[in-house]
Amino acid sequence: MGEIKKFRPDLDSQSIEWINRLSDWAASQQKRGFVTRMHQALIGSIVLNPEIMVNAITEIRQVEGGQTKSQDLASFIYPLEASLRLTAMKNPEIWGKPDDPLSTASWRAVDIINILVNCRSEVVKNARENTMAKNMPHRAALVLKILKEVGLSDKPINLIELGSSSGLILTALQNQSKFSTWFRESSVVQPEIQNQEFMPLKDIRALGIDLNPPSDDWVLACTDDDKLRTEIQNFMKTFGDERVNVIRGDALKITELEPVKQMLTEKDSRRLVIFIGMFLYQLPKEKLESLKRKLSEIISDTNGVLIIADSRWIFDKIPTWNCWAENSEKVISPVLKINEKPLWGWATEDQWPTNLKFLV
Q1: Is residue 279 within 8 Å of 291, Cβ to Cβ?
Q2: How far apart are CA 96 and CA 106, in angstroms?
Q3: What is the pLDDT of residues 179-199, one digit of tens each?
């Protein structure tokens, strides 16, 4: 704090607190190999114009009833960054630069202030109404691997993805043969993963559920890696007429949704599989526990299978990413340790963590 005060003695304590929090977070992201150029620009923008930046962050964190969103920085900083990029893309006359506004490398602190001064309400609205939606179709490879391990590749299945964003993973799974070709041509996937043989799925019906299904523009704005964003855009075009439907719905109330009710009636002829990817870690503890009880009831009643790809943080405060399957009684697949960057490569754990079971 002392160093910041020397540089900007007029900054108030709240501005300095946000600079310090963002600086620590950016440093931790950098250690993990994630893009931090825009994080640094955000820090600089608070120094340049603390009032507009701190007020924008406060508004974005505000929810109904005057409460604030999670203290987890990722839950509102990533949507803020995505909203800035999307707003700049839609307002080229205000962006005023030839650089691609969706690329984090294009951003400086002055650009953030410029967009907020001119489009503040648009930025805040998009950031408040949308969640982080890094919908990477590459992650379908994880699900295919797990389905093979639990012997469901050749069985008729109804597959529901909770927090499915724009449904790209489900689209890949429902068009698995075409996805395999697309996946092998990827420039961002590890060769040892890319070249594996996927067992064809015999019969899959897929349904996506999301609290707020995002537009394709929002998904692309959330993707801060330029190569990855290009590939996702290519996937959207390649599978344009074959996209899986995503319906609006609350994960805690999925049994009230008509398409889900229909799938539940087919439990004797089609195995129910529920997939949750990179979603649970975002939930407050009370919602996480409520969802755990709801899914436990569904999986038990239908003899279904739950596939999770998420952070072990939700179990034991170990910030590693894993993917596994479980039924109502136990973990039934090998536990895959997911590479943190990118999040679609993996290695099988030598020993299964004993505390990973989610269902009760």
Answers
A1: no
A2: 12
A3: 989 998 888 887 777 777 777
